[in-house]
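Let us begin with a simple case.
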Amino acid sequence: MPKMDHSNKDATDRRNTPHNNNGGLWARAARLAEQTPPSRNRYVDFLRAVSILAVVVGHWIMAAPYYEHGKPQMWHLLAVSPWSQWLTWFFQVMPVFFFVGGYANLTSWEACQRRGQGYGHWLAGRLQRLLQPVLPLLGIWLFLALFAKGLGVPQGFLQVGSRIALVPTWFLAVYILVVLFVPVTVAAWNQFGIWSAIVLMAAAAMVDVAFFTADLKLLGWLNYLFVWLAVHQLGFAWRKGMFASAWKSFLLFPTGILALLAMVSWGPYPLSLVGVPTDAISNTLPPKLPLLALGIAQIGLLMSLQKPARRWLDRPLPWTGTVVINGMIMTLFLWHSTAMILLIGLGFLVQPAVFGTTPGSVAWWILRPAWGMAFAAATLPFLSAFSRFENAGSASAQPARSVWRLYFCCTLTCGGLGYLALKGIGSGSHWSFEAFSIALPFIATTFAGFGPLSHRKFR
């Protein structure tokens, strides 16, 4: 497979995003699609778009609000209908995100080196693209928390709602750590090739053994790096042409599925590939080997389809649709759960009877498409209002900054986002700490030079 050049991705995406051009959304995207260079691997963008849609639909399905005996409740579908845990094998797409991220990060890193730019320049651009879109989300949730407290909303309901809404921020916290290691992981790939991924997989396996046999639970958190760095390295393999053969790639699919079946059937791992409140063990908190097995299966299947998929993406209609989604992908990822929670909260306040159908029942499933459309409609205003933060400026035009300043920014940001994703807002005595956790990304990005107080103008 020839190497695809995404070196112009940052500048092109920023200048020609659908948000910033004139005309209707589809017309603007169509004009941008027509400008796509032949060297661009459109399948990378397509997988990113499909993955985000899978995340959104999965979250909208799993939320199960219920009004019973005069009390609003937020049930979890995977807990009330255990059979639905099989659905997570289709909707858990985080491995695809990190796999695609590996391809994109290696391409961007190589382009930066060709331009003679250093690590500080590259990292500043990456962090700008990742962190600017999340700041409005945190600011709005600080306002919502204060407003809810003023209205007397029960702390438990606020905490559950904010945790659901802020769950996407865990991905940012982990992905930032993966990005920080790119110079090291690229050097490891250049020296050891695919073995750099295999060693990380072996390390993840050893961590799981220690987690289950020696009860070293804290050690399990290392797999946030080992598991996702391993999948990220496989993205390097794709960039270097290792998945050119469809049949050889496809062999990974049954290999991963069989390994996954063995792990959940005879191993200590639960069936669900996302966290379930009623499960004592989670495959995602922290990540465990089933996610690696799933990632291998997904990569095998997707790489076996890439040649016909890329031919299909040469057509205007599917490629324009892909451009539309990628132009607002971070905004959709960050805001879809907030839109859902606010709509549910409004329903409980105005017409709680709409949540009278028992979650998991036949009638409940029949109503899922209607609720999906309602959640989609509720998300549209947020896409319109906040996609400008995603499309502000050119990441490639970022000036170089001192690495220690960027590392400090990452430390503060990951700490704040990690806490909010785990605890949410409204845990009672920790309100001041929660407010501080919200403030950390603002402080960090301002210190790094691209936060709201750095006087950077949004277009």
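The second case is a distinct protein. As before, the sequence precedes its structure tokens.
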Amino acid sequence: MEEIQELCLKHDKEMVTYISMGFGNPYGDPFHEDIVAKWIEKLSQLEIKIFALSDTIGVSEPGIISRLFSTLIPEYPKLEIGAHLHTTPDTWEEKIASAHQNGCVRFDGAILGFGGCPMAADELTGNMATENLLSYFGKQEVDLSVSIAEFENSKLAATQVFL
């Protein structure tokens, strides 16, 4: 991480660091929010300023999402702490809401939710669909400066590539 960060700084780039399994893990290893906080603290000492708490297997639930963002964002106000959430078709909105209502303003999305992790226990678990993010923030009247027409064109192109 140090070497990558040095290269980023040298070339005027900003590194985004993903804290994988930031909401739990499939291996049965101990998990606690303090572990996530410890790594953000340690890595922020390298002048890394952007982190994405990552739920690569879809185990996050509103309670832990709320606790992590409501604790970490105020504790590290100079850092940008975002969400990379995997979800099933029926849990996406509660996950976005839990993060957003607790200060998260940076979200990863994938058109139509393409992608995912083969370790996820539910075959319907995939990346957070960009269109779900747009829907949620549209209902919240958050201006994302996204052209819906251009997004629809991109979505159509994705279906031609992936379906």
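The mean pLDDT is 92. Helices lie at 2-10, 33-44, 62-75, 92-100, 130-139, 148-162.
Keep these points in mind for the review questions at the end of the chapter.
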